[in-house]
Amino acid sequence: MALAYIALGSNLRDPMHEVGQAMTELDTLPETRLVKASSLYCTAPVGYDNQPDFINAVAAIDTGLEPMALLQAILDLENRHGRERPFPNAPRVLDLDLLLYEQVVMNTPALTLPHPRMHQRGFVLLPLAEIAPELHIAGYGSVADLAKQCADQGVVLLQEQST
């Protein structure tokens, strides 16, 4: 089994429900078990401002799926939730990003690991630091230190995880 981290986000329909439901569904992927889930955070949109705020979280999973198979599984999950991609950074019912997969480093047209922009994004780093502050992102440093640098990005804790 491999330890992987997935970012979850939504700003359409009922975003809190969409993120919560997707978190539950990650636990039902083949050969996969949800290990830990962050609290929910509210974040202003990045890249395209004319849209509602996002609800964000991060999940840690143990999986027997290889990185590309895991990517396909989470893309299928997005599609089942009605994900559309009309333009970059468009509003979305569900957005799932594979952030880290063990210590795997890869760069293909379909998948880059670690996620190439995660070290700059408070909406990823703050929930990730909540569940895995000791993680180290190669070339960038610890998740805890990176999260401190994003404290001014307007990411607001909404609902603490109860488990």
TrEMBL record:
Protein known as: 2-amino-4-hydroxy-6-hydroxymethyldihydropteridine pyrophosphokinase
Signal peptide positions (record): none
Annotated NCBIfam families: folK
Listed GO biological process terms: folic acid biosynthetic process; tetrahydrofolate biosynthetic process
Organism: Methylobacillus flagellatus (strain ATCC 51484 / DSM 6875 / VKM B-1610 / KT)
Domain (7,8-dihydro-6-hydroxymethylpterin-pyrophosphokinase) ranges: 5-133
The protein's annotated pathway: Cofactor biosynthesis; tetrahydrofolate biosynthesis; 2-amino-4-hydroxy-6-hydroxymethyl-7,8-dihydropteridine diphosphate from 7,8-dihydroneopterin triphosphate: step 4/4
PANTHER family from the UniProt entry: 2-AMINO-4-HYDROXY-6-HYDROXYMETHYLDIHYDROPTERIDINE PYROPHOSPHOKINASE
Xref: InterPro entries: Hppk, Hppk_sf
Pfam family, one: HPPK
Class in the EC hierarchy, top level: transferase
